[in-house]
Amino acid sequence: MAGGTGSVLISQQLRPNDVVRFSTPHVALAPIAGLQMSAGAVEAGNLLLVRCNRAEWETAERAYVFKDWHTQYYEANPVFLLRQYEPPFEPQHIQNALDDLQSAGRRLVTGLRLLKPGSVLEPVYTARFVVSDGLTVRELGPYRTEYLAMPLDGLTWMLEDAEAEGIGRLVATIEAVESIRDTAGLLATIDQFNLAHTPLVSNALSVHLLLTAITMVFADEGASGPRSAATMYNRAMLAMRWASPPLDPAIETFYRERVQSLRNLVHHHSLAQNEAELDEAKTNLSWSLRVGIRLLMQAYLRRSPIDVATPRQTLNRALDRFDAGDASGLEAIIRPPAG
Amino acid sequence: MQLRVLACLPRVGTPSGVIDLGGSHIIHLPFDEWLALEGQRQSAVYDKLRSKYTARPPAFWEWSLDVDPALTSPDRENTATLAKLASKDLDVFVAALHWYTGTPPIHPRRSVIYFDAERTEDGVPRVYGESEKEYATENSQPAIVLRSLDAGPLATMLVFASQTTAKWRDGAYEHSVQSLSLSSTPGLGWSTRLLLLVAAFEALLLADLKKGLQEAFAERFAALLTDEPAERKKWTWWGRLGYELRSDLVHARSIDATIRKLPAPPEEFVARLERAGVVALCRLLGGSDVVHQWQVEPAAC
Q1: Same structural domain for residues A107 and A243?
Q2: A182-202 pLDDT tens trace
Q3: Domain that residue A39 falls in
Q4: Counting CB atoms within 10 angstroms of each CB, which of A7, A187, B131, B218 has the fewest?
Q5: CB distance A129 to A60 below 8 Å
Q6: Partner residue opposite A187 with nearest CB, options B171, B191, B251
């Protein structure tokens, strides 16, 4: 990012130090609602995240120059996913750029949600912009201005400098998983996890989605019934214990005594509206899935053609061994490949 | 008094202009009238929007609200009360539009709602959602397109959604409606949408069972869709395959064998099953008299 596009925007007249730093007149921008960072720009793998200044923002949001959002803009401190395109960039490339923002934005938000809790929203729900030689094309979602409103409402996900590398690796892992065969189930699991964190989804449906995802990560393949469920929830708890020991006794109680009855109530839609209980369930299930999905993605990427066990069997056998005091299976899943 | 209310319908296109829904209409507003509602008749900034607005006019749902005349005087509290009164009608309209087109619309609450009382220099009382009035000036890619021939069935659906409001607001149905709506989230693959579809119906159709879920799902789902034996047989087969595919995904079995049995590519199979799901939901809500006239194939969208 360097140089400028030449044209002087109204905001630059108002605030001369804000200059457009894009290196090309063809850029695609997508706000990642809720994402906050202290650095001006961060590279996370192949993604460039930028706290656009007002002049850069107004290349995409020209109409906003007439609104009273200027003071709130810097307060909101929104972060954008930025793609810069070298010429020739023709009108027929615009849709591809918008689609790329959608998929890259979804991967990034998935990575953020898998790393730690916080409020963050995919650009498909807010807005995506392509700016090309002064022409702006926008794709708008139902929560169009949430990228400005969420931070002001305290709904944020703070990216620490040290986390950028990890996020980059997670995004690369998600992209790699998307490109290999037989991952429909895993990708659907990730979707269930993401949908559970979508605004306006009731807590009851969120928990339903998370419980489905838990089954898709920790259940024995092809098995169902009470014994299988107990094993599955025990593994979900073990994943948390392995990732962040020692485990809070309340979480052990949740997985050992309460989750099965909660599952029955949620699946039969007979849940009394106890929002506090649902919130707690959402938190616990999400934590287990953060660990489980990341391990399962690694297990998929490490699968070799001669493996008899499926990635899910590999993960769950490793968790069962961990229950018996042997963490080597889990360590093998996360160990960097030789060479 | 009867107060005219206008709600901007994000990403809804009506090439033929007015859609008469009986007691309400979907209309285009002339640009000058929209300026009057916004209180921007003298605004050069707004005037620049004229060509864009006119070339791709936004759709507004226009209906009457029975209100206390005192509420129409410009006042923040009055406007909030009017918005609350309008929200019930809007929710019914959104449900009807979803069930009729098979596509959940963006709620007008996200855009702008005008209460067309006395027009002053500041326009009329109105409430803005997150997108303010942007959908009114940006309608180049409608997600739902309605034509004149949609008027009758959509009006019937509106009556149906209104009559069954208490039922679909009930917990189990609300859960199902929300699950079906989520499946239209952009970018979702067929596998996720299938999980959402089955999740929408699990509790409604299978609450009394612990075994034989796949067969019960298939038979009950088909029974909701049609009374005609050959059609029912077809939908039982489709339902069975849908549930089997869902179980393959959840229990990490290979999906290859099930996919080979599908009567259409997975994307198309799930899209048609989703459409059938909306019809099944309406039947379950008690609308067999209303929905028997429809085909399960995609309608207006």
Answers
A1: no
A2: 899 999 999 999 999 987 788
A3: 10-159
A4: A7
A5: yes
A6: B191
Residue A4 lies in a domain: no
Percent of chain B past pLDDT 90, that is, above it, reads 58
Residue of chain B minimizing CA distance to A213: B250
Who wins on pLDDT, A151 or A1? A151
Query: Would you say the pTM of this structure is higher than 0.90?
Result: no
How far B85 CA lies from chain A's nearest CA (Å)? 21
Q: Do B251 and A219 touch (CB under 8 A)?
A: yes
Minimum-distance CB partner of B131 among A106, A145, A273: A145
Q: End of a domain among A159, A192, A221? A: A159
Whether B252 sits inside 8 A of A185 (CB atoms) is yes
Is the domain of A33 the same as that of A129?
Answer: yes
B151-177: pLDDT as tens digits: 999 999 999 999 999 888 877 788 888
Among B134, B175, B202, the residue with its CB nearest the CB of A205 is: B175
Looking at the structure, tell me whether residues A185 and A330 fall in a common domain. yes
A139, A144, A201: residue with CB nearest B182: A201
A209 & A300 share domain: yes
Q: For chain B, list residues whose CB is within 8 angstroms of any CB belonging to chain A.
A: 10, 45, 106-107, 110, 130-132, 134-135, 138, 141, 171-172, 174-175, 178-179, 182, 185-189, 191-192, 195-196, 199, 202-204, 207, 248-255
Are residues A154 and A223 both part of a single domain? no
Tell me if A117 is assigned to some domain.
yes
Could you say which of B45, B106, B182 has the minimum Cβ distance to residue A195? Answer: B182
Interatomic CA distance for residues A230 and A237, integer angstroms: 11
Tell me the two tokens of residue B53. Answer: 């607005």
pLDDT, one tens digit per residue, over A92-133 is 999 999 999 999 999 999 999 999 999 999 999 999 999 998
Q: What is the DSSP secondary structure assignment for residue B208, as one 8-state letter?
A: T
Nearest CA distance, A268 vs chain B (angstrom): 5
Task: Please tell me whether the peptide bond between A88 and the residue prior to it is cis, using omega within 30 degrees of 0.
Answer: yes
* Interval A291-331: pLDDT, tens: 999 999 999 999 888 888 899 999 999 999 999 999 999 99
Q: Which of B46, B140, B174, B182 to mutate to test the interface with A (most CBs of A within 10 A)?
A: B182
A201 to chain B: which residues are within 8 Å by CB?
A: 178, 182
Residues 64-123 of A with CB under 8 A from B: 66, 102-103, 106
In a domain, A173, yes or no: no
Cross-chain residue pair B110–A144, CB shorter than 8 Å: yes
State whether A205 and A329 are in the same domain.
yes
Angle (nearest 5°) at CA A253 between A248 and A259? 120
A249 with A139, same domain: the answer is: no
The type of residue at B141 is: Q
Indicate yes or no: CB of A205 within 8 angstroms of CB of B253: no
Summarised one tens digit per residue, pLDDT across range B98-121 is 989 888 898 999 899 999 988 888
Among the three residues A125, A159, A193, which one is the final residue of a domain in this structure?
A159
Q: Please report whether residue A235 resides in a domain.
A: yes
Total tally of structural domains belonging to chain A: 2
d(CA B225, CA B222): 5
- Chain B residue at shortest CA distance from A101: B187
List A137's β-bridge partners, or say none: A130
